[in-house]
Design a protein that fits this description.
Elements (H helix, E strand, L loop, with lengths): L2 H6 L3 E3 L4 H20 L7 H22 L2 E3 L2 H10 L3 H20 L5 H25 L4 H4 L2
Antiparallel strand pairs: 1-2
Helix pairs in contact: 2-3, 3-4, 3-5, 3-6, 4-5, 5-6
């Protein structure tokens, strides 16, 4: 789905630039990321840690959307938003993570601990790149992005 289709179909709505909501989402994202980072990935914890890290990355993406004056109502449109922002690598990675999460949540496709360890590293890399870019773009968020 393209960004224009997301707007047209109501999955992404123009809103106001919401700095407070963006900061709040970044704060929650940081806590999730810290929890995942300090946790041990094993066959029992792998799925929960993967989902928490996905939610952490999603929160950053949503924060960026709020800074741009958009409220995005589905995860496919988050990918389109990232592409529209000129972030094709992060968009591609986010979409891959989204599909893995959907496989877990909707189809019961398990992920083993070794795969999750590798994927968590990739997710952290995407999150780090997004945090750096957001700090460059939005001076009002630098304090919360520094965590």
């Amino acid at each position: 789905m393209t960004w224009d289709e997301c707007i047209r179909d109501g999955w992404a709505k123009a809103s106001f630039r919401d700095v407070q909501r963006a900061k709040s989402l970044i704060g929650v994202s940081s806590r999730r990321e810290k929890f995942v980072k300090r946790s041990v990935v094993d066959d029992v914890s792998a799925i929960s840690l993967f989902c928490d890290m996905y939610e952490s990355l999603l929160g950053l993406c949503q924060a960026m959307a709020f800074m741009e004056g958009f409220n995005i109502l589905n995860h496919v449109c988050v990918t389109s938003f990232l592409e529209k922002q000129g972030l094709p690598d992060i968009a591609r990675d986010f979409d891959r993570f989204r599909k893995l999460r959907n496989g877990l949540n909707y189809y019961g496709r398990l992920l083993d601990a070794n795969f999750v360890r590798k994927t968590l590293g990739e997710m952290r890399s995407s999150e780090s790149r997004l945090r750096k870019l957001m700090a460059e773009r939005y001076a009002t968020l630098r304090d919360v992005l520094a965590d």
